[in-house]
Amino acid sequence: MGTGWATVRHRFPRFAGTFVAVFLGVAVVAGAATLHLSSQPQAPARYGQSPVLVTPPDPGTGQDSDRRAWTAREAAGLAARLGSLPGVTAAVADPWFYVQRLVAGRATGDAQAALVDGHSWSSAALGGYRLTAGRPPRTGGEVAVAGLSPGATTDVLTSAGPEKWLVTGTVSGPGFYVADHEAARRASGVHVIGLTLAAGAGEVGDGAGRAEVAAVRAEVGAEGVVRAGADRDSLEPDSVTRIRWLGAQLLIALVMLGAFATVFVVSSTCALSAAQRRRELGLLRAIGATPGQVRRLMYTETALIALFAGLLGAPAGAAAAPLLAEPMVGTGLEPAGFAVTSQPTALAGAILLGLVVALAGVAAAARRASRIPPLDALREAAADPRAMTPARWVAGPFCAVAGAGLLASVPALPLELRSTAGLGAAMLLLTAAALLSPVLIVPLVRVIARPWRNTAIGMLVRESTLTGVRRVASTAAPVLATVGFTVLLAGTVATAEAAVGIDESAKYPAGTLLVPDGTPGLSAAAVTAQGAEPTPSTRLLITHGGATTGVPASGSVTGPAGTGDGPAPGGEFLVLDRYTAAELDARAGDVVRVRFADGAVTSLPVRAVGAEVQVPVEMVRRHDPDALTRLVVLEEDAVAVPGGRFLPVQEYVREEVDEEGRLVDLFLVALIGLTAGYTGIAVGNTLLMATAARRPEFGALRLAGAGTGQVLRIVTAETLLAVLTGAVLGTLVAVISLAGIRAAFAAEVGAEIALVIPWTITAAVTAICAALATAAAIVPVLRRG
């Protein structure tokens, strides 16, 4: 321990690469973990005064997005029984429905939140909302709402179409509150029953509160799920949960990439350090140090550096987390109102993870260092160790053969597996290129340096590079991996977006579409105004053979057309898509159990297996009155309607692809940026240490008459040659892989797709690597000068 501490204290610059890598890794983990732990589900504010909520039973699909509903009659009966329990002052069903305010004919507010903005007046008590003026709504066309005075009128948009409502009361909270019978008519079932408790019942969690909850659970039984206290947070709206999920995916990706990159940088740094300390470590062996003591020395040094870096990095990451809250909300990765809170667990976990990751990175270098023979202490000079180790000779060709074989087999794989297999093949080929880089670099360097072979500096740079292949490979390999992954990821995303655009365009005939304009869908009135029949979308819970699954379905006007069966007669029927049919092991002719959005259950015959799930449109209207239509293909002259706009097919497809691509691009920028940063650390640290070790060589150049400027030009040229070699090799491998991925996408959509190579971002990443590498290489030369 004492020797390790003394080494770290007196030779801290030697460990700068490890320190920076662990510091950055711990900061990323601490910041990401703080953001993630601060973003926890919250019960909707409209249930703020309801400490106990009851929801329908779990549907058993394993998907959080699948939720059962009670029918209005079932909910009324259960609420009446719960309201009679001791300590319960009221049990109120909360049927919600879609409503959005219209201003100058345009829908306002959040489209997804509007899906649950309509409520019954009696449910206002669950949030503690009261009338500040006027009276409650009593009949159809009346509403109590915040921000408007009694007697005013407001234009709204519902699933039926535009309506004008009379404001009868002003409410102290958000939402549109209508008469109870109106809410029951408009809503698709009931998803929540809220309970208010007597003042003497106490808060849920103490003895009195627990007694009431136990009584409610006993009364509900298998008819529902009782959620009290923090359990109510699971009722957060799906739209908000999805936003949190998107943010969590980015944070998880950053943590995983940060941990992996830290291991990579620490491993390469320690390996180079061990190689440069062969005489020192050999001397320790000569005076009696055992291999185990040498290993422990390496572990101790790394652990001390990692602990120091972690203690500084964790607070830095936590301090940076609040600065990211607003950008994450603005980019749709966290819900509105998100705030960062103190998370000591995140800091402790980040420090511990940094220590573990650093020790994992030094493991291989420690093993090699323990095998250094004592005689190495007597060596005055040594040739550059062979660049290719036996492990590289085994793993490199294996990855190359496996990647090439997988890429060649892509055309024979099922369509849904081709793109994934192409990415896997690309990963293997990039790994092979990195492992075999000492072999591949030699001919590539000769080709790149050929134009300058007759100049003095060009000759020195080429021969120095070819002599120090291991040093060059240590610089080129991180650049190879970073540039290769950049080309691969960005190119795959761009190619996939092109494929999606072609596939989506093929679904619609050339012409114009009516699509939602600031709304979650099209109302029935918007569709019928175009002379078309509404085909609203709904969600079904389908059970067959003991298996249940939740699927989106559309209303069919013409009746089912299955695979080879042609049009079928009308009546009640169900068409399954191929995936759902396989999941339920159902086929045409089977009878399945279907639960609709309003909680009603019926048995339907499977008439066909086709491209999508369909039921008669009349059944959707009956069981999901709040359903909306996704879009309409116009066959006649367009009629302007609230909540809708007209777009040519190509423009609509481009908007859809751009909307999905926005988040993907954000992920790409974050991941590629972090990767480039770690690559800069790896390359910079390698060159800083390697160049410092070459001071005798530069001294010989000066004795031969070279000036400081000439030495700087030589070092800069060597560095740029190594970076360029890695970038060219990485780009070549990635482009070959992209060609296979492009072919897979083309086969999936049945159309030709252009190969998209992201030259701009590739050049930017290469330039960043070159700038960092050059700066790190010339610092020791300038300091010496």
Describe the structure.
A hairpin with a 3-residue loop joins strand 16 and strand 17. With 785 residues, the chain is of the alpha+beta class. Helix 13 crosses helix 20 and helix 14 packs parallel to helix 20. Among the domains are: 1-42 and 236-382, no CATH class; 45-234, no CATH class; 513-639, no CATH class. Strands 3, 4, 5, 6, 7, 8, 9 and 10 form an 8-stranded mixed β-sheet that branches. A 6-stranded mixed β-sheet has the order 18-20-19-14-15-21. Its main location: membrane.
Task: Provide a quick synopsis of the model.
The protein is an alpha+beta fold. Residues 561-569 have low confidence and may be disordered.
Question: What's the SSE blueprint?
Answer:
Elements: H1 2-10, H2 16-38, E1 52-55, H3 72-83, E2 88-93, E3 99-103, E4 106-107, E5 118-120, E6 131-134, E7 142-145, E8 153-158, E9 162-171, E10 176-178, H4 180-186, E11 193-197, H5 207-220, E12 225-228, H6 238-276, H7 278-286, H8 291-330, H9 344-370, H10 390-409, H11 415-435, H12 437-449, H13 456-467, H14 469-505, E13 512-516, H15 524-528, E14 537-544, E15 547-556, E16 561-562, E17 566-567, E18 574-577, H16 578-584, E19 591-595, E20 601-610, E21 614-616, H17 617-623, E22 632-633, E23 644-648, H18 649-693, H19 695-703, H20 708-749, H21 759-784
Parallel strand pairs: 5-10, 7-9, 15-21, 18-20
Antiparallel strand pairs: 1-11, 1-12, 2-11, 3-4, 3-8, 6-9, 7-10, 8-9, 13-22, 13-23, 14-15, 14-19, 16-17, 19-20
Helix pairs in contact: 1-8, 2-6, 2-8, 2-9, 2-18, 6-9, 6-18, 8-9, 10-11, 11-14, 11-20, 12-13, 12-14, 12-20, 13-20, 14-18, 14-20, 14-21, 18-21, 20-21
